[in-house]
Amino acid sequence: MSPNRILNDNGNLESLFGHIGELPSLSPIILKVENAINNQYVSIEDISRLIMTDQALVAKILRVVNSGFYGFKHKISSVTHAITIMGLNSIKNIVLASEVFGAFPIKNSVVFDRYLFWEHCLSSACAARAVAKMLKMENIEIVFISAILHDIGKLMIAKYLPVQLNKISVFAITKEMDIVDAEREVCGYDHSKIGQIMAEKWYFPEILSDIIAAHHEPITNTPYKKELACVKLGNFFSKVFCFGNADKEEIQVVEPEVWQILDDIGDTKNNIYKRIFNEMLNSSEFLNSLIH
Amino acid sequence: MDTRNLREGMVLKKDLLSPFGDVLLTKGTVINKLHIQFFKNWGLEDLDATFLPRNKKDTQERQIIISLKTMDKKFGKFKDDPFMMDIKEEMCQFMLTYLEELNSIENS
Question: Could you tell me which residues are beta bridge partners of residue B12?
Fold first, then answer.
């Protein structure tokens, strides 16, 4: 079966995840925050009041915004303060990221290391964001969050299909297959398709589920070319610079169209790589503030 | 200084002395797993030593060296793809240049 046929196949994943009573759900607060942000009559106070109904979430947001990742000089002590200086979209993304982290309490195993998994996701996200920033793109935060969540399908496999995950790892080694091909062979779907289905189930914005679905596909198939290119580059640089579980996986091919967006930045390549690399080094601060 | 706060990669700012004044580790030593195990086993929990946190330059260097070492393996399957091999070459060049730059900061 060609990859495209699988992606066009809109059948549900019941056959694969049928034995699970219920797939993980995200807290309804995300949808509420999302709706409130999109409503022009809602004020910042309303939104912070909404977030404050969930004290655990407040604690998480404050921990993240006070982490070294953002590097604010003064301690941020309230949600309103955090929203004022970081913007609503950043806060929304922190809410989303911390809820997704929380939705998958997953144990480490020989074939899955939770910390390394998130390290890969976050370093990709930091690299993708650095590229988007240098390109002066408008939706930098959406690039950041889609890169954080691009491999969410892998979490689903690790949590709910441990037997298949072992098989995938064995196939990848013994048959010298790409992880993605091994996933298709063992599960019938790869992690980008599974991720897309989860994203739709969780009512993520369309651009997010599109990018998750397409992060191993040619860039021509999506209306969000630039955003997808950033995420692909993030994924690539994370692996090149050995962040997360990168050493176990080979690098995915980078198409010339993706690579060319680096030329639009208008700086020397060495400066660009340096900036991307150093942004990725910062990602561990973000990660530690999310998981502890 | 509580040696329970020791982490791998920290650098000793001055000599670490035993309670009897013997030099256990000289300044500049990079703490590794064995050191930590040693302190634990011998109950040396309250030695007079000051540690530098793992500094940024070391982290940068270490990460780049690991990346360089694994480039061949990571790009193995692209042997016949000239475009990807160009990218690989460019990344390796960057890493070498950056390593040199980091070293020159130290020496200046």
Answer: B51
Task: Count other C-beta atoms under 10 Å from residue B65's C-beta.
Answer: 13
Residues A110 and A202 in one domain: yes
If you measure CA to CA, which chain A residue comes closest to B76? A250
ipTM of the complex: 0.77
Asked whether the beta carbons of residue B67 and residue A242 sit closer than 8 angstroms, the reply is: yes
Domain, as residue range, for A34: 27-103
Nearest chain A residue to B68 by CA: give it: A241
Q: Cβ contacts (< 8 Å) between B70 and chain A: which residues?
A: 242, 247
* Interface check A253 vs B, CB under 8 A: yes
CATH value at residue A187: 1.10.3210.10
Is residue A101 within 8 A of residue A64, CB to CB? The reply is: no
Number of domains in chain A: 2
Last residue of a domain, one of A50, A79, A103: A103
Q: Which residues of A touch B98 (CB under 8 A)?
A: 270, 273-274, 277
For residue A7, is it within any domain? no
Q: What is the pLDDT tens value at each position of chain A, 292 positions in all?
A: 333 333 334 445 666 666 555 667 777 787 788 788 878 888 888 888 888 888 888 888 888 888 877 777 788 888 888 888 888 877 887 888 878 877 777 777 777 888 888 889 989 999 999 999 999 998 888 898 899 899 999 988 888 888 889 999 898 888 888 888 999 998 888 999 999 988 888 888 889 899 999 999 888 878 899 999 999 999 999 999 998 875 566 788 899 999 999 999 999 999 999 999 998 987 877 777 776 5
Q: Which of A103, A125, A158 is the last residue of a domain?
A: A103
Spell A62-95 as b/e; 16+ CB within 10 A means b. Answer: bebbbbebbeeeeebeebbbbbeebebbbbbbbb
Which pair of structure tokens corresponds to residue A41?
A: 């009559």
Which chain A residues contact residue B64 at CB under 8 A? Answer: 241, 277
Contact between B84 and A273 using a beta-carbon 8 Å cutoff: no
Answer whether A247 touches B (CB < 8 Å): yes
